[in-house]
Amino acid sequence: MNFNPSVYMDRRTRLLTQMQRGIAIIPTAPEVARNADTHYGYRHDSNFYYLSGFTEPEAVLVMVAGDTPLSILFCREKNLEREIWDGHRFGPDAAQEQFGFDAAYPIEQLDEKLGELMGNQPALFYPLGFDAGWDRRILGLRNSVLQKVRGGIRAPDDIRDVRALLNEMRLFKDGHELGIMRGAAAISTAAHKRAMRFTRPDRFEYQVEAELLHEFCSHGARNPAYTSIVAGGASACVLHYVGNNAVLKDGDLLLIDAGCELDGYASDITRTFPVNGKFSGAQKDVYEIVLAAQTAAIAAAMPKRAWNAPHDAALRVLAQGFIDLKLCSGSVDGVLESEAYKKFYMHRTGHWLGMDVHDVGDYKVGNDWRALQPGMVLTVEPGCYIRPADDVPMALWNIGIRIEDDVVITENGNEVLTDAAPKTVADIEELMKRT
Ligand code: GLY
Ligand code: MN
Ligand code: MN
């Protein structure tokens, strides 16, 4: 098996150190029924995977911090009958050895062992409130420990959300993670190029989606990181459009927001391009403004700059552009002050990116936007969405454009992971040139 457990063991050690004393309980995700007896493709819980590297369902990580730190896995037992139907299971013995746990037990023993392990621990760390079923179960187990008080055993009275520690750890990507994210970005950029080459009038949005999925899967990224948005024409102005079932029209733009998940890490790219391979004058006018906003935002994604600096930079360019296009009137400061731009740009310019497409991590420290630091990964994704309205020039109706890249903050600047997906008018038209 090509798997290095030390990456995950190091993370467990770091979490144990921060916990100081107490017990952490981190379950993986449940399998989810789709209908009858079939399930959605299984996806582990991100926090569980971050600390274990273990991808089987029905597993729980328990960590005990203190003088003798412990990492214990509870997982499914070997079961030759079930393995004939569903495939390989590690079982506790092999999982302990190959994933570097101090101990591993069958998942059926979880409640009994937790009852013992929780006793006399001062603090209980778990994803508090994340899942009502787990809340009931964990607090019920704590209640049973409380009842042992006359035997001199105390239950943890300090109950904390372990995500406060984990979110901060996950916000800073290590070299192992950045390597995977570069891989995810490379596959997704190739998928966007494939989609551009394939697109033409009269094809359906779902046929373009199929090209994206083909590129993801055939390079080892078995799933998209989120449902792909393939939005032709006016549908680009529906921010979460996932119908993907319309025919593509000559003269329309196509907005694709799609990225693969590779080894548990997301990529998240948006490109907007003409269905027929050639931007119209009006489309180009809007596109160049969004591209200039994105260029300014990426230039502001620098170490020590505030989280909001890319958003502010994008807004200034967009506000001027909206004035030039006669979508807004007055001065840039006036448009920003009145938030008149929100009619055409109603979302923010990015989010953290990692195991989750909208990854964990605080955006503010106290009342202030936090400073960008090396190892943070964010998206930069300004856009412009022009719905038909009496006070909007008709030539611009139904133009929806977003341009999104994935950016790592480095010591001296940034690294754009998704640069290889064309985004200038010239590069897009060149790639789509019909011979
Ligand atoms: N694809 C989700 C987003 O861009 O935030
Ligand atoms: Mn995004
Ligand atoms: Mn996106």
What does this structure look like?
The chain is an alpha+beta fold and 435 residues long. The protein folds into 2 domains: 5-168, 3-Layer(aba) Sandwich (Creatine Amidinohydrolase, Chain A, domain 1); 172-431, Creatine Amidinohydrolase (Alpha-Beta Complex), CATH 3.90.230.10. The chain contains 13 helices and 21 strands. The chain has helices at residues 6-19, 46-52, 80-86, 91-99, 110-118, 132-146, 163-171, 175-198, 205-218, 281-300, 309-324, 332-338, 425-431, and strands spanning 22-27, 33-35, 38-39, 60-65, 70-75, 103-106, 123-126, 158-161, 223-224, 229-232, 253-258, 260-262, 265-266, 269-274, 364-365, 368-369, 377-380, 383-385, 400-402, 405-409, 414-416. The strands form 7 sheets. A 6-stranded mixed beta sheet has the order 6-5-4-1-7-8, sandwiched between helices. The chain has a 3-stranded antiparallel beta sheet with strand order 9-12-13. It is elongated. The model has no long low-confidence stretch (mean pLDDT 97). Residues 268, 351, 379, 381, 404 line the site of one manganese (II) ion (MN).
